[in-house]
Structure formats: structure tokens, C-alpha cells
Amino acid sequence: MKVDNLFQSIPKDFKNEFFESIINNENFKLERIISKGHSTPKGEWYDQDMNEWVILLKGAAELKIEGQEKNTRLNAGDNLLLPAHLKHRVEWTAPDTETFWLALHFK
User: Fold this and answer.
1) Do the strands 60-65 and 72-75 form a parallel or antiparallel pair, or are they unpaired?
2) What is the spatial distance between Cα 30 and Cα 104, in angstroms, rounded to a whole number?
3) What residues have CB less than 8 Å from 98, skipping those under 6 apart?
4) For labeling, which of 6, 59, 99, 104 is most exposed (least CB within 10 Å)?
């Protein structure tokens, strides 16, 4: 059995946000996301068919959730359940350090 470390194997080029599938089957998908100063492109929203539970392991981020005036701030250890079809976007991630997310997509 191979042991992996979520904080290793970091891409050197952070031109784009990094998405890596850890487990993916018909019931759920678990992915690691690494951001560094990234945000969702202006005018774009995530509108997903599955529920998404996210936990921020390191760094900081702000999410814009449709229907909420104020952005939702996430720091290390914070987690959030985003129900299917709740439109949301990443407004900001820390520019000076990697932000590590785990995202669990499920039915």
C-alpha cells in the first residue's frame, strides 16, 4: 500500500489552479485542489449536479455564494457543504502561499 501526502507533489507552474482526482467512482469524487492567487473567471459560476463538501487544509479563500451579500471566508480547517446547483465561485485565494482544498462531490 502506498502512502501519499497531500502537501507534496505540488506543481511548479501555478498559471492555472491545480485539480487532482484522488478517488472517482459512480457515487462520489474526491479531489485535491491547489490554488495560489486564483479565482473563478469573472462572470463564471460553478453550478454542479452533485453536492460538494469542501475543507480548506492550508491557506485562505473567499467564496461568493449566489444570494448572499457577503463573501464566505475560509481559513485552514474550515469546511462547507455546497448543495447541488447552488451557484458559487471562488472570489479570492491567498496570493503568497498555496491554498490546499479537499473537495468531496457526492449524490
Assistant:
1) antiparallel
2) 5
3) 10, 14, 34, 35, 36, 58, 59
4) 6
pLDDT at 64 over 90: yes
Can you tell me the mean pLDDT for 63-68?
96
Q: Is the dihedral of CA 85, 89, 94, 98 positive or negative?
A: positive
**Surface-to-core class of residue 54, CB atoms within 10 Å of its CB (0-12 exposed, 13-18 middle, 19+ buried):** buried
SS3 content of the chain, % helix, strand, coil (to 5): 0, 50, 50
pLDDT tens track for 21-53: 999 999 999 999 999 999 999 999 999 999 999
Q: Evaluate whether 103 touches 54 at the Cβ level (below 8 Å).
A: yes
Give CA–CA dist 78/59, Å, rounded: 11
